[in-house]
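Loading example: each entry is read as two labelled lines plus one structure line.
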Amino acid sequence: MTITSNEETRTDRLVKWAAELKYSDIPDDVIQRTKDFFLDTLGCAIAGRSHPAVSAMVRFAAQMGPSDGKSELIDGSQNVRTSPAFASLINAAASHVVEQDDLHMRSIMHPATVIFPAALAVSQDIGATGEEFLTACVVGYEVGCRVGEYLGKSHYEKFHTTATGGVIGVAAAVAHLLKLDAIQTSSAVGTAGTQAAGLWQFLMDATHSKQVHTAKACFDGIFAAYSARDGLLGPRDILEGPRAMGAALVPGELHPEAIDQNLGKDFAVINSSFKWHASCRHTHPSVDALLNLMSKNQVTFDDIDSILVPTYQAAINVLSLSGNGDTVHQSKFSMGFVLAIAAKKGHAMITDFTEADLTDASLRDFQSRVTMEYNAEIDSKFPEEWQGTVIVTCKSGKVFKESTRFAKGDPELPLTRSEIEAKTHALAKYGGITDTAKVDSIIKRAWNLENEVDLRGFVF
Amino acid sequence: MTITSNEETRTDRLVKWAAELKYSDIPDDVIQRTKDFFLDTLGCAIAGRSHPAVSAMVRFAAQMGPSDGKSELIDGSQNVRTSPAFASLINAAASHVVEQDDLHMRSIMHPATVIFPAALAVSQDIGATGEEFLTACVVGYEVGCRVGEYLGKSHYEKFHTTATGGVIGVAAAVAHLLKLDAIQTSSAVGTAGTQAAGLWQFLMDATHSKQVHTAKACFDGIFAAYSARDGLLGPRDILEGPRAMGAALVPGELHPEAIDQNLGKDFAVINSSFKWHASCRHTHPSVDALLNLMSKNQVTFDDIDSILVPTYQAAINVLSLSGNGDTVHQSKFSMGFVLAIAAKKGHAMITDFTEADLTDASLRDFQSRVTMEYNAEIDSKFPEEWQGTVIVTCKSGKVFKESTRFAKGDPELPLTRSEIEAKTHALAKYGGITDTAKVDSIIKRAWNLENEVDLRGFVF
C-alpha cells in the first residue's frame, strides 16, 4: 500500500477529462479561436526567428539531435527537419521573442507559445490530422492554464508560469496526440510537473531565459508524454500532493478549484487574449487607456507633462526588473518607455520598437515622467481583470484620467480575422519574409485547419 | 544600464574559480578520490540498467536523438552511441536506480550520478583526456555541492537537491570541458539554474522521478553549457538574485557563505561519502549503529523486541513517504524494513533486497516494531553530521543503545580501493555482467584515469 489514497483527486479528474476529450465535444467557437491563436503563433515564430537564443538552439539541435526527422522548423530558411522534441524547442523559442503571442489572464501565462509548437511537431511526427491537432491543442490550453491558475499570482512573483504551467499543458496535449489513456496521461503530467521550472531572474540582466522557458517546456513536456507511453511512471498527485508543485512552488494562496471546475464548459482558449501591442502584456491596459485618453481629449505627445499609472502589484514586479530598458526587448518591459512609444507613434506595434528609439531623447525624457503606483482596488481584481488606468497631467495644467477594463484583443474585444491576418503579415514582414503569397497560403490553410489531413508545410 | 550591479557576487567568484581551475591545481588526494567515485558510478549504472525508467529513456533517445554519435551507454548491451545529451540522460538514470551512488552530506545531494555521466559523455564527444575529464568532474562536484549547501535543508524538504544543485554542477563541469571563459560559464550556470527542478512527490507512489531528476540534470546542464558556448545568455546572479533560486526555491535558511568560502581548499569530492549499504542514505547511520550493537552485545534478529530510532527531521520526512515499502525500491526507504534486512542478514547489500523479502512475514513483523522519533540534538547537527542512534529493547527485557557519528564510507571512514573493487564486482554481477575480466579491465583503467587519452570504452 502506498500512502497516496485511491480517492479521485482534482488532478485525476483533469487528467481523465484531458485523455477522453473528443473533437466532437468541442464547441465550434473554441475550434475557431484555436485556429486564430495557431496562426497568430506562426507569425510570432517567424518574427522571432533571428534572435540569438533561437540560433543557439538551432545549433544545439544540430549537435544533439538527429540529422533528419519528420518535424519542421517554422523558419524555412533553416531547411531543417528533426525530431519533434527539437523542432518544438526551436519553434517555441522563436514564437516567444517578440512579445506578440497570446495571454490567458487568470493563469498569467502565454499558452500558445508552448502548446502549438509541441502539438505541431508531434502531429508531424505521428501523422496526426487537423482535427486531432486541434483537439490536442484545446487539451493543452485547458490543462496548462488550469495549472497556472491553480498556482496563482504568488507563484508568478518568482516563476514564469508559461514554463511551469506550460510544461504540464504540453505533456497533456502530446499525451492526447499519442492516444495515451488516463493512467498514462497521469504519468505524463506527473513527470512534466517534476520538471517544472523557470525563474524571472533573467529580467534583471536582459538574458535569454524567456525563450529557454518556452523551448524547454516543449522539450520536457514531450519527454514526459513519450516516456509515459514507454513505461515511465510519474507521480499522480503532482499538483496538490504534499511534495508537489503547489506545496513547493507557491508561497501564497492556491486555487485548487481551478483544476477541475467547469471542465468542458469553460474553455481556456476562449478566455485567452490576443496581444495587439508588441510590449509586455502588463503595459497593454495602460497603453489602451492612454491612446483612448489622447484621442478623446485631443492630447498630443508634446502636451503631456507626466503620467501616473495606478496598477496591480504583478505589473510593478515584472516591469521594475528591466531598468530603463537598454535593449529593444527590455524596452518593451518599461511602462514609461512603452507609453512614450505609444504616445509618440499612436501605436506600439512590432515595428514601433527600434534600436534608434533607444537613444531618442524625447522618448527617454517622456519615459522619465511616467510613474507606476500600486493600487489596491485594481490589484484585488487581478488576475481576473487586468485593468488599466492612466492619470495624465498636461503641461497646460489640465489633468485627464482614463480607465480600461479590457484591452484590445481580450476575450471581450477579440481581434477579427482580418486583424489577425494583418498582424500575421506584419509579423512575417518583420521576420524578413517577402513572399506575401506564401503568407496568404498559410493563412488559408490555418482557417481550414480542421479539414487538413497532413500538418506538414507550415513553413515560411 | 541594467539593475544588476557590477560588484562581484559570490556566484561570480564561484564561476570564475570553476572556469579557471587547472589539473595541476588539484591536490592528489582529490584526484584519487574522484577516480574512486567514478568507478563507483560505473558500477551503479550497470546495476541499474534494467530499470523501466532507463528503458523508457533509451526509447526516448532512439525516437528523439541521433542514430549515431560519439558518446556511449555504459550498458554495452544496448549497442548504442548517441549525442552526449542523450548518452548522459540514460547513464544518469541508470546510475541512480540502486541507491548505491555517493553522497555529499552538507548539501544533501548525490553528485556522482549527475557529474560523471555528463562529463564522460561530453569528454567522449569532444575527445577530452583523462586529466581534462577529472578536472571537469572536480569542478562539477564543487559547484553542484556548493549550490546544494547554499539551498540548505529547507529546500531539500520539497526538492531533490541532486537535481537542482546537480544541473548547475553539470553545467559548470561541461563548461569547463568546452573551455568556456568565466562570462560564458556564468551564462551556462544561469541557464542551468532557471531549469532547476525536481520534487519529492514521486516517493508517495513509488514512481520514477528519481531517475528523471538525474537524467534531466545532465541533459539540461549540457543544454545550458553548449548553448552558452553558442551565444545563449543566462542570468548572472541565479543563486542570490531577487528572482533567483534562493528566493524562489528555499522557504527557510540560506547559506550564502557556502557558495564561495574556501574555494580551492575545501573540496566537495573529499567531503563525499560512499554508500556501502544499498538503502536510502538516511538509514545508513542507524544500520551501522544496529550492526555494531548486535555484534558488541551478541544480540540476534530473533532476540529483538523493538527498536527506537531517534533521528533528524529530514530522515523522517523522506522515510515517511514510501509507506511500508511495496516495491523493492520503496523498501529501501523504510527504516523498519531496512533495519529488519540488516538484522536478519547481517548486511544490507544490493543482493539483500529481493522481491521475496517483501512478503517475508518475519521481516514485516520486525519492521512494524521499529519506530523513528525526532531528536532535536541530532537534528541540530544535520546536515554537517548524519548521526545514527538505535535503542534496542530485547524480548529478554534488556535495553541496549548505540550511536554512530560516521557511517562506513564517510570521509572519516572511506572505502578502501579493494572494497570499491569488491563493490564494483557486486554491482556488475547484480547487473547481469558475467565477464569479470571485463570488469577488472575497467577497474584498471579507472585507477589509471589521469593517464588515459581517450575516454571511450567504459562500457560493460
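Residues 281-404 of chain A form a domain with the 60s Ribosomal Protein L30; Chain: A; fold (CATH 3.30.1330.120).
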